[in-house]
């Protein structure tokens, strides 16, 4: 399978380079004076038949443009027509951004509707540079999953989309109740999933209904975002208010008995369209493929944009999420053999309870001073809480010759989390000399977070997982003290970045960030002799400086080569045996790769080599295993390749391959050196392809399908045994026109038995068996 993917990549590339290209490409984005993206703006080359219109993010692409000099014209009803001279060179891409002023002679309103949420391929992203930039010009690996691709896959949970990102392995964490992934071998923590550029720390599944696109930037993101996992970051961009009116109502259901009605409304609330809104809402209810794990979910997401003037706008977004779902850590293995039980088998109880609440408020104020300077001031506040009362796995009995039993405990837990962050950024676009074009951002971020948790526990019973008898005993009424603490964190970050166009073919990315991290832990300590509690407070302070340097050169024709180096950091709360605070773990990324537009830029191909080394990793203190020391060093290196785009008219493809060699390379215990990372597959790949009829009475009817494939993965940190590799096939048939849309997806088409991931040898999550999911929707 992997060899076939590689052959496809190489064949496409060789064909493209072999063709004598006289064509180029023009792409960019069009915004109003209020800095809002403009939908339906006509973009054309004067005197030719080449033209297109912008999508709802204001983006446009003109493909297969013969080399020469042209006049690019942008026009729309109610806006001043803008013209700009442009020179197209063979095999090159010209990026042009327009600010389109409103016209005093605005014509009557023209209603604009669309049957598709943007393009299957999104060529422009913001995560890697904090500004709109063509991905093919950014000297770092970034992959985008667009809304249109998500709709064709019928994405309900975030991992449905992430299966089609190279270098990403599915994970399970927090009792199988939140989004956790492995990126380039490193597990993503709550520190590395963002929403609209802000850290989005939650302990339940994030809702996908209001996602516009998902950007995955590979490697540490500390240069712009501070605390970051070494493997990469995931940034969710939400749907924004629109000036045009639309309504979309849909119902999704699956064969496990789950149904999800949802709405997506948008439009202007006044005549001059200065006040716009977007509203997404979802209700979800039903069972899952796991016993005793049902779900009930309510999600509301209003968003408003108000334009104070031609140059100033404010966007306010909120999210309300209630999600009831019991935690579930999966099944166990005995002496390296995974229990042969159905994928539905649970170690929990029918009356397990999990209640989760998430609240989010964001605002984004933008002001454009002139053609050079603009300002962004934005803030984010989240509040989340969780209440769990569950019977769950405790351990394996010592004298179980049958290898069939587990002991269980009852845990009563409550935790809540508050996060506040504000970002203040100044942007500048200017030239120095005759050649250097600068796109610069300088910013300050201040963030505060608080996490509070307490839990009590009591031993419960022993369960035979091959012949389980649930609720045999009454639940304990007296629980023992488990833990009670509060973590308070303050972060101050100062950053600057300059994205330079040295020439049209040479891009240089320079940036750095300085962070000050202050941490306080307040713990309640139980004195078992007096049965009283005392409060203990510990503090910690770390600073970090993290630079990045990247260079991209358009070598010849459609081919660009790039390289970058960046540093990252993550604080390590805690102290050594001697009472000294831990230093942050640090990481270094070295990456080199190629980017190319194939078949006249209809298909994008990327390939990259990466090497990430992480230092100051905690390992057990050889003198006292109750403590840790920072002597560990781990490394992940490998190769990734991605092909995304329209291979033929109507045929869209996302294909990925990844080779990841992630292992320990330095440890105080020689036996632990050269041990592969838990949950990381050396070889993985995916393919998702759809074909949609472009003409005739059945226009909008399409079929799709693909697979995700992973090699074997270590099941625990000691690599004592491995989860078996697997290949899962999915298929889809869909229909989409201006009024109706419907889809039927069959997931795990061949009903292969597989495992999504593991936290340890006693927390292994089975994958879902074959299931059918359908969606029907109506636009008006």
TrEMBL record:
The keyword Iron applies. One of its GO terms (biological process) is siderophore transport. It is found in: Cell outer membrane. Residues 307-749 form the TonB-dependent receptor-like beta-barrel domain. Residues 135-232 form the TonB-dependent receptor plug domain. InterPro entries: Beta-barrel_TonB, Beta-barrel_TonB_sf, Carb-bd-like_fold, Plug_dom, Plug_dom_sf, TonB-dep_rcpt-like, TonB_sidphr_rcpt. Gene3D superfamilies: Carboxypeptidase-like, regulatory domain, TonB-dependent receptor, beta-barrel domain, TonB-dependent receptor, plug domain. One of its GO terms (cellular component) is cell outer membrane. Belongs to the TonB-dependent receptor family. NCBIfam families: TonB-siderophor (TIGR01783). This is TonB-dependent receptor. It comes from Pontibacter burrus.
